[in-house]
Amino acid sequence: MKYLYAILVIAGLALAALTLDPSLVPYGGSNLALTHPISQMIAMRGIVAAVIATLGLIIVLIALARALMLRRGLFLGILGVGFLAVAAGHVAVLADRGLDAGHMPPDYGVTHVSQGTGEVTVLSYNTLGGATTMEDLLPIIVDRGVDIAVLTETSTENGERLAGMLADQGRPFNVFHSDADPYDAEIKSTVVLVSPALGEYRQGPGLGLTWGSVHVRSLGGGPDIIGVHPIAPVRGLEDTWLEEITSVYQQCDAPNTIMAGDFNSTIDHMHATGASCPSALDGFVAGYGTWPASVPGILGSPIDSVYTDWTTTAAAIIDVGGSDHRGVLVRLTR
């Protein structure tokens, strides 16, 4: 019987450890981290850590009770401690990426009247069809010196209205959009605002994403900018999701490019596709969940992000208005 207990404990520990990096296990011709429901699980490391830690604590308490009453419980104790160690591993991964919401000091950035610090500030926000309003975003863009704003689930009309409000404050922006049908839900619309101080830009073909993408190219040596919103990995659309995030992360090879938006995937999914995109948030706030905004950051999924080969000097998570997403701010320098 002891051998059976040992086998069960080893199997339980192996399964728990697998949650740390599912891609380590071959799964046919696919990556396990990109298959349903593992893809959803790995996106929520904080919740996985909480569940495993709770199980571990319960098992340890049962093992202690058995040890006191029956002088048994060694295998259960090992299993419980192992679960607690795995939970700690998940928290360590998130902490290494950045579990604090961060802080973004004021900076009037690269504008038509001042070079500020010479750094470029990027805002990415899924506004949930304007639930986070343009009035909510206006003071953030002005006070934090935002030079590039990528707004997913935001109508062209709202993007142009925001640009008008910014122009009234002496901060003109050029507006680019995914050309979504105005009669479609705003989930399919992505808008990118770019300060003219960064130079002249021309919009090129997007990535063909279901929920919209915008690709604008600099005509004067500035960074190319890509706003993205791949489809979510809901049941029945997993193949489309995988195709779209793979297409998105393939853009990382392009130098001097800033890619931002709601990726509906995390750093773990990015690595699982075989990409090695440099995350502008990693080491700052990349472990802090941006969705859903209704739960603490450690329990959320950090799916809103910025990827670039530029160097990050500051980053912060912001939460304004009624969107179910938090936004991200990042300040970059060459």
TrEMBL record:
The keyword Transport does not apply. The chain crosses the membrane at residues 43-65, 74-95. Coiled coil: none annotated. Residues 123-325 form the Endonuclease/exonuclease/phosphatase domain. The keyword Phosphoprotein does not apply. One of its GO terms (molecular function) is catalytic activity. Keywords: Membrane, Transmembrane, Transmembrane helix. It holds the Pfam family Exo_endo_phos. This is Endonuclease/exonuclease/phosphatase domain-containing protein. It comes from Flaviflexus salsibiostraticola. The lineage of its organism: Bacteria, Bacillati, Actinomycetota, Actinomycetes, Actinomycetales.
